[in-house]
Amino acid sequence: MPRTLCALLLALCLALPADAATRSSHILLETSLGDILIELNHRRAPLTTARIVELTDEGHYDGLIFHRVIPGFVAQTGGFTRALEPRNPEATIVNESGNGLRNRRGKVALARGNEPHSGTGQIYFNLDDNDSLDPSSRRWGYAVFGRVIAGMEVLDTMAEIPTGARPPLPSDVPEQPIVVERAVGLDRDAALEWIIAWEEARMEKENEQ
């Protein structure tokens, strides 16, 4: 078995609680640039992950774009359609930024406004280590709730696309729309199957080159 696949499967098995097989332990984003698999941390961010799974099951993320991409910082989605019409849930999520998870490269967190508990469903991917987004004794941070298991190269590709202003957003909107075609929750077994298929496809592509 390839070393990359072994490492992914081992990390997946060690990270999952015993009941993960019966609920969504992962979120798969199928984007116009490729797939991104997110591992949820239900232990550290139970309120946030529960809401993200609920929104995923409701189809909230389907058809939305990555509307904010800043190289070396973050790639954000979950709030706007291709026409830049807002799609924001009404219910807010309690800020869980004090859970010990840090905004490091590859970690996924809940976006919000200036008010600490104003996050509703927009999420962002850390493209680098972003200590400024972590909490301190003087401020709330941004709650990390998961990590990228596969597809970080898709996010790095996003960061290479030129961005600019597109009303109503003043900046950082990719000139080439990056669409979340579908978001789906996966349980442990489905995630394992997806990772195996993903690695096999990756190796086949490498062998063809």
TrEMBL record:
It comes from Natronospira bacteriovora. It catalyses: [protein]-peptidylproline (omega=180) = [protein]-peptidylproline (omega=0). The keyword Isomerase applies. It is an enzyme of class 5 (isomerase). Keywords: Isomerase, Rotamase, Signal. Residues 30-185 form the PPIase cyclophilin-type domain. Transmembrane segments: none annotated. The lineage of its organism: Bacteria, Pseudomonadati, Pseudomonadota, Gammaproteobacteria, Natronospirales. This is Peptidyl-prolyl cis-trans isomerase. InterPro entries: Cyclophilin-like_dom_sf, Cyclophilin-type_PPIase_CS, Cyclophilin-type_PPIase_dom, E_coli_cyclophilin_A-like. Its EC number is 5.2.1.8. PANTHER family: PEPTIDYL-PROLYL CIS-TRANS ISOMERASE CYP38, CHLOROPLASTIC (PTHR43246). Belongs to the cyclophilin-type PPIase family. It holds the Pfam family Pro_isomerase. PPIases accelerate the folding of proteins. It catalyzes the cis-trans isomerization of proline imidic peptide bonds in oligopeptides. GO terms for molecular function: peptidyl-prolyl cis-trans isomerase activity. Residues 1-20 form the signal peptide.
